[in-house]
């Protein structure tokens, strides 16, 4: 690392992408007042891994991600990133939100992406090179001078990702980043993210409730139990060759396994609410997943 906190320059004068950092979540409890959202969560994520956090709506995925981001302080336990305790937000842990409102509407795409490096005092020539690199990486070079309101939903999410990557994060935390996109754009973005992840080498934690999306992207798929007091339920290693095809028999088998896993949690929530409708997590017993319809 250089003194200004950026990655060292390559022979081309551009900062080299920072290698991914390992993340360690150990015995974490997260409370909101009396409400226990997450209890006893432990998870180790290796440097450069892409891990999908999957679980029923409201179980605590975002809350756990926010603890890694440093937005939420655990009531118990510890989160470390690269061996250092997470005590608050840091540019080395970039966050991509579902809402494109995260972009500054009064800045152009280029200015949005340049914002982080500018705040860190990166000299203009290098800043421009960094911005150009990441705009090209996310396919937005031609839209650099547009404002967020002039972009489609998919383009806004690309801009968000470029803005995060311009800070050379070692960890990228993505909270249902494609959740608001139409099915086709979502599919394109999933393919793009797979490529960008390999180009940057960052560790990615990707929150989704879409089983198909998790299978397309994850090295590992980690499921959570239904809240309150949500915990890590099961850790699925997913080393199927990429790019993945959900109609491939191995993907389809994993899809069924995950649907049973998540379906059982949904059923547990419904029972707890006295709304049990016979939903038992068996294939076909829950609503079809969005990606299944493709
Ligand atoms: N700031 C907060 N104050 C109080 N309760 C909160 C707060 N943030 C989250 N919660 C509660 O914590 C639980 C977990 O919420 P969280 O947003 O992490 O779930 P999620 O799995 O990400 O859901 P979804 O998939 O629907 O986005 C929920 O019961 C939610 O109401």
Automatic annotation (TrEMBL):
Domain ABC transporter, by residue range, is 23-251
Spans of biased composition, class Basic and acidic residues? 274-294
**GO MF term (any one):** ATP binding
Q: Where is this region: Disordered?
A: 270-294
Q: Which InterPro entries match?
A: AAA+_ATPase, ABC_transporter-like_ATP-bd, ABC_transporter-like_CS, ABC_transporter_ATP-bind, P-loop_NTPase
**Presence of keyword Translocase:** no
> What PROSITE patterns does the entry give?
ABC_TRANSPORTER_1 (PS00211), ABC_TRANSPORTER_2 (PS50893)
Q: Which UniProt keywords apply?
A: ATP-binding, Nucleotide-binding, Transport
The answer to whether the entry has keyword Transcription regulation is: no
Q: What is this protein called?
A: NitT/TauT family transport system ATP-binding protein
Source species:
Micromonospora echinofusca
